[in-house]
C-alpha cells in the first residue's frame, strides 16, 4: 500500500510531504510555552503536531543509570530518570494542546512509550500513532497500538533490517493496515554523513508502504533531499528559540526554519514531476530565443554564403546552427539585407 490516510489527509508519493512538528520536551515544563509552540507550528504550515506520552516512571526506573557517551551526548552525565523527568510532557496538558492544534486545523497525535499511554491517547481520540526508534522492538507496545486500527508511523533508528521486518510483521499481524516507516538515525543531533538517505527507496521497495524521514540533522537540507528520494513524511523537532535551551533545542528548528522546511519540501515534491525528455508546452515560446543563422552583411542574388556574410545569433527565427556547414558555399536566390533570418527559400 503506497498511499494511506491520516486524519483524512492522504499520505503517499502522489501528495505533498506530510510534515510533522515534534514538540518533544522543548516546552521546558511550561504549559504557556507549549501552547506557544503549537501556535508556531501552525503558523509554519505543518500538517501535524506530535507529542511524546510517557512519565519517568513509565519509561524507566530510578536505577541510577547515567548517560555516558564520552562527552558526545547532549545529555551527558544525566541519569535516564533525571532526563525523562525534565523532558516529559505532563499528561494533563495533552487535551489542551490537542485542542489548540485542532483550532488551527492541525492534526495532533503522540508517541506512546508504554501500553498505559496508548489507553490514555485512545481516550483523546488521536488519529494516528508514532512509534519511536527506541521502542521499535517493544512488541507488546506494537501490538497494543496496532489493535487500535489506526495508522502507525514507526521510526527505524538503531534497528537492523531484520528487526525492522519483525516490527512490520508484528504490526500487520496485530491489525495495522496503514503503515509508514521513517528512515531515522538515532543520534542527537545526526550528521548528514550518517543519514544515508539512499536507504529510502530501498525501504519503499522492500516493505511496500510510504517511507519518510525522522530528521535529527541541523537545517532542512536532509529533509529536502529525502523528498527527492521519495520520502512522503518528514518529522522534525522544533523549538521557539535554540538560545533559550531545552532538552532537544540543539537540533530543533526555530519557527522560521520550520516554515522553510514546509515550503522547500513542497517545492522539492513539485519539482519531481514526471519523466520529461522532450519540449514542455511551457518551453515553446523559449525556443525562439535559441540561436539561428542570420545575414550579417548585404548579400546580392547569386553571391555565395560565407562566414563573413552570415552570423549565428539569437533569436531563432532562421535556420538552426546545425545547418551551418550545409549553408556555406550555397548561393543566394535573391538580395538579402543584414538582420534577415536565413531560410531555405533564400538558398
TrEMBL record:
Residues 292-347 form the AFP-like domain. It holds the Pfam family NeuB. Keywords: Transferase. One of its GO terms (biological process) is carbohydrate biosynthetic process. Signal peptide: none annotated. It comes from the Bacteria. Gene3D superfamilies: Aldolase class I, Antifreeze-like/N-acetylneuraminic acid synthase C-terminal domain. GO terms for molecular function: N-acylneuraminate-9-phosphate synthase activity. Its EC number is 2.5.1.97. NCBIfam families: PseI. This is Pseudaminic acid synthase. It comes from Hymenobacter montanus. The lineage of its organism: Bacteria, Pseudomonadati, Bacteroidota, Cytophagia, Cytophagales.
Amino acid at each position: 500500500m503506497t498511499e494511506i490516510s491520516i486524519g483524512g489527509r492522504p499520505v503517499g508519493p502522489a501528495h505533498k510531504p506530510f510534515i510533522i512538528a515534534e514538540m518533544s520536551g522543548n516546552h521546558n515544563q511550561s504549559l504557556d510555552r507549549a501552547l506557544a509552540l503549537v501556535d508556531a507550528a501552525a503558523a509554519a504550515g505543518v500538517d501535524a503536531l506530535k507529542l511524546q506520552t510517557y512519565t519517568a516512571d513509565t519509561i524507566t526506573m530510578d536505577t541510577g543509570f547515567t548517560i555516558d557517551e564520552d562527552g558526545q551526548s547532549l545529555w551527558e552525565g544525566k541519569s535516564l530518570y533525571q532526563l525523562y523527568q525534565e523532558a516529559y510532557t505532563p499528561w494533563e496538558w495533552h487535551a489542551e494542546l490537542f485542542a489548540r492544534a485542532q483550532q488551527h486545523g492541525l492534526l495532533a497525535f503522540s508517541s506512546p512509550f508504554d501500553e498505559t499511554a496508548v489507553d490514555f491517547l485512545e481516550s483523546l481520540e488521536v488519529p494516528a500513532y508514532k512509534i519511536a526508534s527506541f521502542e521499535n522492538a517493544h512488541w507488546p507496545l506494537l501490538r497494543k497500538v496496532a489493535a487500535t486500527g489506526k495508522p502507525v508511523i514507526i521510526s527505524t533508528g538503531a534497528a537492523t533490517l531484520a528487526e525492522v521486518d519483525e516490527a512490520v510483521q508484528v504490526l500487520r499481524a496485530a491489525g495495522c493496515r496503514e503503515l509508514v516507516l521513517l528512515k531515522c538515525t538515532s543520534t542527537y543531533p545526526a550528521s548528514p554523513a550518517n543519514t544515508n538517505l539512499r536507504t529510502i527507496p530501498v525501504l519503499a521497495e522492500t516493505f511496500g508502504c510510504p517511507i519518510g524521514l525522522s530528521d535529527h540533522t541541523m537545517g532542512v537540507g536532509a529533509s529536502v533531499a529525502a523528498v527527492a528520494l521519495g520520502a512522503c513524511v518528514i518529522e522534525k523537532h522544533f523549538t521557539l528559540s535554540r538560545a533559550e535551551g531545552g532538552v532537544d533545542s540543539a537540533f530543533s528548528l526555530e519557527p522560521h526554519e520550520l516554515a522553510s522546511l514546509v515550503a522547500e519540501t513542497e517545492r522539492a515534491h513539485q519539482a519531481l514531476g514526471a519523466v520529461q525528455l522532450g519540449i514542455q508546452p511551457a518551453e515553446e515560446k523559449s525556443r525562439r530565443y535559441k540561436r539561428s543563422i542570420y545575414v550579417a552583411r548585404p548579400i546580392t542574388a547569386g553571391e555565395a554564403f560565407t562566414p563573413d556574410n552570415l552570423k549565428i545569433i539569437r533569436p531563432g527565427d532562421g535556420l538552426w546552427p546545425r545547418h551551418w556547414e550545409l549553408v556555406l558555399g550555397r548561393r543566394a536566390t535573391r538580395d538579402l539585407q543584414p538582420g534577415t533570418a536565413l531560410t531555405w527559400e533564400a538558398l
